[in-house]
Specification:
The protein has 363 residues and is α/β, with parallel strands linked by helices. The chain folds into two domains: 5-125 and 308-328, Rossmann fold (3-Layer(aba) Sandwich), CATH 3.40.50; 127-301 and 341-345, Dihydrodipicolinate Reductase, domain 2. It contains twelve helices and 17 strands. The protein has helices at 16-19, 39-49, 58-62, 79-88, 103-115, 130-140, 167-171, 176-179, 183-200, 304-321, 329-348, 354-357, and strands at residues 5-10, 29-35, 53-55, 69-72, 92-96, 120-123, 147-158, 203-210, 213-216, 220-222, 226-232, 238-250, 258-266, 269-274, 286-290, 293-297, 352-353. The strands form three sheets. The chain has a nine-stranded mixed beta sheet. α4 runs parallel beside α5, α5 (103-115) runs antiparallel to α11 (329-348) and α9 crosses α11. The structure holds nicotinamide-adenine-dinucleotide. Nicotinamide-adenine-dinucleotide binds next to α7.
Length: 363
């Protein structure tokens, strides 16, 4: 009989609320341990999730032979070192997006997972959001003909609705050495760069303007408005991401005050997907237009939490069946290249060919 996969959740902050969901009641895995520098937080979460062990020192987690996998939910500057150490200790790793601050860090992570023969999943959950998964299925099946363009709208507003996000959770994102880039284009944007690749393929070049808006001067800023354009490899397919922060926009949400609207145009149809993080548009989350008809997909699971549950299940399946997780280290690295190239384009004020900026990964 298969042994239960014992997981340690490392970092019991804001997002752990959703990352825990897929483990609770899972027949093959359980939250065996929790770890946070803040022992009080760790104790509270251990109680909530029924974890047996509580740690405040990550090195003790790595020395616990009962732990099979770690779920890393910590600030970005820790992703690389914690991942590499976990791989060396023989633990499977699910690490939050963005996987790392630099490509050199991503390389170390990929190498550590390969060398130690453990699974490495970059936990970018948008590619597990059921309406996006269905959209990909339809695009791949030719429902809208050949896809030609994608438009991704990222709309952030005032965090006066949804869940509570503390100052501690926001503040490390204001430090580029910890966050790796700005809170919208680099941090949250990683989801959208990932989605653009997931739905339509590899990216050849990118051109971007990324501006900056102070929210609370000296304390909090957004890397927006931003316009990012790209061309897909070996094709006449293009994409654009439009990132807006609307300071007085009240967003209907259970989570962050941030919403998404996506449009994919093909040679014979168009597809719209909306409402991943929030609920601005009260319409079906997936709509397809073709042959003069509008098809509404009404019965898809479409809460943002569903994408977390499915992403966690994917990690468990990968460990259980010895398969590659969705967005393994190599794929996560491709998304990181795209994100970093967009930022570089804005800084240099020029178009960036991604493979010229970053060397391909060694095989
Ligand atoms: N998938 C998503 O949609 C999504 C959404 C939000 C955040 N995230 C990602 O999740 C991660 C955590 O973000 P958050 O918003 O929950 O942050 P947070 O600040 O709320 O939580 C981070 C936690 O990590 C703990 N921590 C820091 N250093 C540690 C260490 N050395 N050992 C153990 N614990 C340590 C902190 O005490 C804190 O409790 C980030 O990588 C972030 O980008 C992903």
């Amino acid at each position: 009989m298969l042994k239960t996969i014992n997981v340690c959740i490392v970092g019991c902050g804001r997002i752990s609320t959703l990352n825990s969901l897929g483990y609770l009641d899972h027949p093959d895995a359980k939250i065996y341990a929790v770890c946070d520098l803040d022992e009080e937080k760790a104790m509270e979460k251990a109680k909530e999730w029924g974890a047996e062990k509580i740690y405040s020192d990550y090195y003790e987690v790595l020395n616990d032979p009962n732990i099979d996998a770690v779920e890393l939910l910590v600030p970005h500057h820790l992703h690389c070192s914690m991942t590499v150490k976990a791989c060396e200790a023989g633990k499977h790793v699910s690490v939050q997006k963005p996987m790392a601050l630099t490509i050199e860090e991503a390389d170390q992570m990929v190498e550590a997972a390969r060398k130690n023969k453990v699974k490495l999943k970059v936990y970018e959950n948008f590619v597990s959001y059921p309406p996006y998964v269905k959209a990909k299925e339809l695009i791949d099946a030719g429902e809208i003909g050949d896809p030609i363009s994608i438009r991704i709208k990222l709309n952030a507003g005032k965090q006066d609705t949804g869940w509570e996000v503390t100052k501690d959770t926001w503040s490390w994102r204001m430090n580029e050495e910890i966050c790796g880039g700005g809170p919208l284009v680099f941090d949250d944007g990683y989801h959208k760069f990932s989605l653009a690749r997931y739905l339509m393929g590899d990216i050849e070049k990118v051109s971007a303007w990324i501006d900056r808006t102070d929210v609370i001067p000296g304390e909090f800023y957004e890397d927006a408005p931003a316009m990012i354009m790209w061309k897909y490899k070996n094709s006449k397919k293009y994409g654009i991401m439009d990132v807006t922060y609307s300071k007085d926009l009240h967003i209907n949400t259970d989570y962050y005050a941030c919403d998404e609207r996506v449009e994919v145009t093909g040679s014979k149809g168009v597809l719209w997907i909306t409402r991943c993080t929030a609920k601005m548009l009260q319409i079906p989350t997936l709509i397809v237009y073709r042959d003069g008809k509008t098809i509404n997909y009404e019965d898809l699971r479409d809460d943002w939490a569903d994408s977390f549950i499915d992403s966690t299940k994917n990690f468990i399946e990968a460990i259980k069946n010895d398969t590659e997780p969705l967005l393994n280290g190599e794929e996560g690295r491709e998304v990181l290249k795209f994100a970093l190239a967009a930022i570089e384009s804005s800084k240099r004020k020029q178009e960036i060919n991604i493979d010229q900026l970053f060397t391909p990964i060694k095989n």
